[in-house]
Design goal:
Length: about 500
Amino acid sequence: MAAFIDLVARSLSDEARSEFDRRVDEQAARLTDALRAGRLDSPGFGLGIELEAYAIDEDGRLARVPDAVFESRCEKELGVHNVELHTDPSPFDGEGIAAQAAALRRDYRTVQRAAERAGLEIVLDAMWTTPPPEGSDDYLTDGDESEGMTVAENMTPSPRYCAIDNDVLQRTGGSITLSVPGLERAFPSILFESLASSIQPHVQVPDVDAFPRYYNTALRTLGPVLALATNSPLLPPDLYDIDDPHRLLEDTYHELRVPVFEQSINRAWEKVRFPDGIESATDTVDRLVDDPTCAPFLREWLADGDRETFEDRFWELDHKRGTYWRWLRAVIGGQPVDRGDRWSIRLEYRPLPTQPTIAENVGFQLLVAGLVRGLCVANHPLPALEQDAAERSFYGAVEDGIDADLAWVTADGDRTTDSAEIYEELFEFARRGLREQGVSSDAIEGYLTPLEARWSERTTPSRWKLDRVADHLEAGERFDDAVSEMQTEYIRRAGTDDPIVEWS
């Protein structure tokens, strides 16, 4: 523990921050030169995805993931109950999509089997609501002070996470308030962020000069796409202090993970937010450099050897990107899909919650990639949508889900707030983008039709959850029991691999 705390203390020192920022500035200048020289161009479009989930025990309660599970095909995340799966990049074409789906499904099954050997189950869900045995409040607040540093008991024991936590806490007076419908509560760490799980589709763009158009287009799709995906309308019931659960169901947000993540960090800096558009790919580097530095680390503290990968040449800059928490961000570096001696630039699409099934998670990966590709190849005027309108559309989706007031510019250049018109174009251009990349009609319809049905039937995971809880309340059940019954049914139905629109 002494070495752990020493590393956290070094991260938070003025000397480390000064040296880190110096290296970031130097590496950013070199990376900007590489962008301008075409070093980030790559042979073709590529795809990848990250998927977060959490573990429950045999009684359906939140559970800690033992180390043996991480010897399979997953990695650790902020909470000790979290796992993260990710795919290697594949070409954005029919074979690449099949490879993405197969890899994600294989890895999920491998991790699930490892969890079962420990008496656990891995759940594809965006927010846990069944507390661990000690209760949600004790779980999220348990921790110690060690040499002036807060160490959250149920946070993954990573110096990086602990340093981020303490850097935020030093700027917020030692506590962080979460304020959402039904809850106003100060927490002693950022661990309440681990209530939520998400997916992040990645789309590699081969042409650096074209990247701003893809970025600015993707930015304006965040609201409509998120409205189809919402899956975190409720916190664990034992965190609420409410008199009228029916009122809570009316007032709660459809995507609580957005305010949970934003408020866990933004009490210190406004780092988790809807981003601005860009004019050139180099803007993404400038924005990263200008972002407040959080929990800096130096390469020699953690990295070994003298490798010549991108991550080692730009180690501190890449580390800083890990705390650049915009809902859409550029990721510069990493192997292009041909794995040649080049780097790449890609979109990381960050606002989407984890979906109930592997097929639906892959479906959103394809929806995002196909939509952005289709809009750009058609030279669609969506980037003309005003920044503030796109931002209001996004936060409208956070609060109201599929019923949100959305904003769009049609192919004819007309502004519209008609959701029927928006979703007609959204799926039209998503299909066009997938066809442009050689994806078969069968694959397109297999993945997109269930998502399109969410719009036509006004059914999303968050809507389903709220309706089920309301049904249990109407049957006379207590709020805690109603949420528990809903969560048990959600887990059972997700395990069948049927899409949410087929859940009755």
